[in-house]
Design goal:
- The chain is an alpha/beta fold.
- The protein has one domain: Glutaredoxin.
- The protein is about 40% helix and about 25% strand.
- The protein contains 4 helices and 5 strands.
- The chain has a 5-stranded mixed beta sheet with strand order 1-3-2-4-5, with helices on both faces.
- It is globular and about 30 Å long.
């Protein structure tokens, strides 16, 4: 299941949840074909990997929330973008065409013991 990020408090939920299990957040632009491709990859990855908790935010429709993520994590806003949270911190991110199965698997494997 992919949860929709709908309020500022959802980042607190993500940070708290990442204390127990890794969390991935997808920043999605509904007006961008690159984001549509990355969204499909993210959904496929989520369906194949149940060890994570998954969230998404719409960067156009919920722009203040999307920008709040940047302000609170220090990770520069991009779209599409995946941010990986573990132990209460944003520890990895990637964007655009780098959002693919190989990069998600390889980049995240080093953080999961």
């Amino acid at each position: 299941m992919i949860h929709r990020y709908k309020s500022r408090e959802d980042l607190d939920k993500i940070l708290n949840a990442s204390q127990d299990r890794p969390v991935m957040l997808f920043k999605h632009s509904t007006a961008c074909p690159v984001s549509a491709r990355a969204w499909r990859v993210f959904n496929e990855f989520a369906n194949e990997n149940d060890q994570f908790e998954y969230w998404h935010v719409y960067v156009i429709e919920d722009r203040p929330l999307s920008l709040d993520i940047q302000n609170r994590t220090g990770i520069r806003h991009q779209s599409p973008q995946v941010i990986f949270f573990n132990d209460g911190e944003a520890i990895w991110d990637d964007s655009h065409f780098a959002i693919n199965h190989n990069n998600l698997n390889e980049s995240l494997a080093e953080y999961i013991a």
